[in-house]
């Protein structure tokens, strides 16, 4: 609840927009040579921790990232789910 309210706040929207603009919308993660366009701002210290919450608007705790790199930073949110009704084309051998 407080996290959702924070992400909707005027202060967060302004700070995250300023961070993206300051890096020219270039992904700062640079994972595996990423050249993606940064469209999200990642908290280096997660805001769900006391230290992260205190630093939620701290410029040095923010990282502009593309969606792929942001998802890679949060693997717990994007676990693959197995669905036996779907054929995974990656598993088919030629």
Tell me what you see in this structure.
- The chain contains four helices and two strands, in the order H-H-E-H-E-H.
- By secondary structure, it is α+β, with helices and mostly antiparallel strands.
- Strands 1-2 form a two-stranded antiparallel sheet.
- The mean pLDDT is 87.
Would you summarize the structure shown here?
This protein has a two-stranded antiparallel sheet. The termini are far apart.
Summarize the SSE layout with pairings.
Layout: H1 2-8, H2 10-22, E1 40-43, H3 50-54, E2 62-65, H4 67-73
**Shape, principal axes of CA atoms:** extended
Calculate the mean pLDDT score and round it: 87
- Radius of gyration, Cα only, in angstroms? 17 Å
Structural class of the helices, strands and pairings? alpha+beta
Sheet-strand content, in percent, reads 5-15%
- How many DSSP E strands? 2
Distance between the termini: 49 Å
The major sheet is characterized as: 2 strands, antiparallel
Major sheet strand order? 1-2
Series of secondary-structure elements, N-terminal to C-terminal: HHEHEH
Regions with little confidence, pLDDT below 50 for 5+ residues: none
Q: Helicity range of the residues?
A: 25-40%
**Number of separate helices:** 4
């Amino acid at each position: 609840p407080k996290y959702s309210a924070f992400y909707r706040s005027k202060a967060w929207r302004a700070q995250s927009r300023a961070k993206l603009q300051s890096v020219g919308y270039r992904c700062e993660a640079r994972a595996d040579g990423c050249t993606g366009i940064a469209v999200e701002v990642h908290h280096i210290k997660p805001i769900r921790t006391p230290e992260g919450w205190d630093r939620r608007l701290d410029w040095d705790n923010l990282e502009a990232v593309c969606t792929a790199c942001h998802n890679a930073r949060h693997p717990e949110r994007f676990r693959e789910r197995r669905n036996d009704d779907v054929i995974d084309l990656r598993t088919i051998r030629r």
